[in-house]
Design goal:
Strand content: 15-25%
Number of strands: 14
Largest sheet: 11 strands, mixed
Order of helices and strands: EEEHEHEEEHHEHEHEHEEEHEHHH
Helix content: 25-40%
Length: 371
């Protein structure tokens, strides 16, 4: 189901996981309203959780890539713990991080680590913990009626998205698709207008895979060709592609499939053309070795089965919370997302669960959230 960028994802219920908690009620912070009377749970990401008396509200915002997962996971809590409300606002990674810096949310969904240009915005004395929660492909979604099985590579994508390849029958595209009768239709670019982790990861892929052929650099915002049509959020990009013959856009595969879009296969570093899927994103993710802070990148990974434009998303929290009640809420909800139950929700959404080693490291890191 497609989702609007500013449609809040809100419902009730959080299963307590991660660590045995016996926490007294504390005053709430500006980013949540919470009370707790204690909880108990397993110390690992298990498929079930013990009875919980954690209660309160988690306010969160950020990545539109996480919208489908957050909505599904939050909904699954309704029958587990009706005393906790989770409010996730899919406003984009950049806005989500800004909300975290200003202490208006308990966590921010972000598809990229804090950029160096934002480092000064993190409040003094605060340490951010990165909790990876999902993996997924960035689809090269296109609208060419009657054209199936389109193949693209990094160099050609660089030309398309910087506006030097202007029509679908350009020789560079035809050379990759000898069996297709490509039209002379003008290419319409569908891109993000907001500060977006999807943009950051797609442009980083082009830096890495296309090299000097890509001239626009990498950032959460890019100065696209003036003819591009920009949308606020991934669902908006998907709708531009869907409504515009000749359009191509970069959009997370979960949103693309929900919108009924067709996606190209992309040539990977092994020389194979691979279509976006949960399995091909998993293949890429298994090649990753995360840093100590659990940041990593999954684009252009080796392996014949790896989809090259794969990316990841984290939930960012401060290591020290203003009260024990917020600690309890964060450990409960993030622990559920990392549990086998939570991770099992991803594949049906055309997303990918974390590799076991990364998931285990993220679960262990829950103990670093303190008050």
């Amino acid at each position: 189901m497609p989702f609007g960028r500013r449609q809040r994802v809100t419902t009730v219920g959080v299963a307590a996981v991660a660590a045995a908690l016996g926490l007294a009620a504390c005053s709430s912070s500006g980013s949540s309203s919470t009370t707790t009377s204690g909880s108990s749970a397993t110390g690992s990401a298990s498929s079930s959780a013990s009875s919980s008396t954690v209660s309160g509200t988690i306010k969160a915002a950020g990545s539109t890539f996480q919208t489908n997962f957050q909505q599904t996971a939050i909904s699954a809590f309704k029958s587990v713990d009706p005393n906790v409300t989770v409010d996730y606002d899919p406003v984009g990674s950049g806005t989500g991080r800004s909300d975290l810096y200003s202490n208006t949310v308990l966590f921010a969904g972000s598809d990229s680590p804090v950029p160096s240009k934002e480092a000064s915005e993190v409040p003094a004395g605060k340490t951010i913990l990165y909790f990876p929660v999902q993996i997924g492909p960035i689809a090269m979604a296109y609208n060419l009626p009657g054209i199936k099985g389109l193949k693209l590579d990094a160099t050609t994508l660089a030309g398309i998205f910087q506006g030097t390849i202007k029509t679908w029958n350009d020789p560079a595209i035809k050379a990759l698709n000898s069996g297709l009768s490509l039209p002379s239709t003008t290419i319409t670019l569908a891109v993000r207008s907001d500060s977006s982790g999807t943009t950051a990861n797609f442009s980083q892929y082009l830096v890495d895979a296309a090299g000097s052929a890509w001239k626009l650099g990498t950032s959460s915002t890019i100065t696209w060709p003036s003819t591009a049509r920009a949308g606020d959020g991934g669902s908006a990009v998907a709708q531009i592609v869907k409504s515009t013959t000749g359009a191509i856009g970069y959009v997370d595969f979960s949103t693309a499939t929900a919108a009924g879009l067709t996606a190209a296969s992309v040539k990977n570093s092994a020389g194979d053309y691979v279509a976006p899927s949960s399995a091909s994103a998993t293949a890429a993710a298994t090649q990753v070795t995360p840093k100590a802070d659990l940041t990593f990148a999954t684009a252009d990974e080796p392996g014949a089965a790896s989809y090259p434009i794969t990316y990841q998303s984290w939930d960012l929290v401060y290591s020290v919370q203003p009260n024990a009640a917020d600690v309890a809420l964060l450990k409960a909800y993030l622990g559920y997302l990392l549990s086998s139950t939570g991770q099992a929700l991803l594949t049906p959404l055309n997303l990918s669960p974390l590799p076991a080693s990364i998931d285990s490291a993220a679960v262990a890191q829950l103990s670093k959230i303190t008050s």
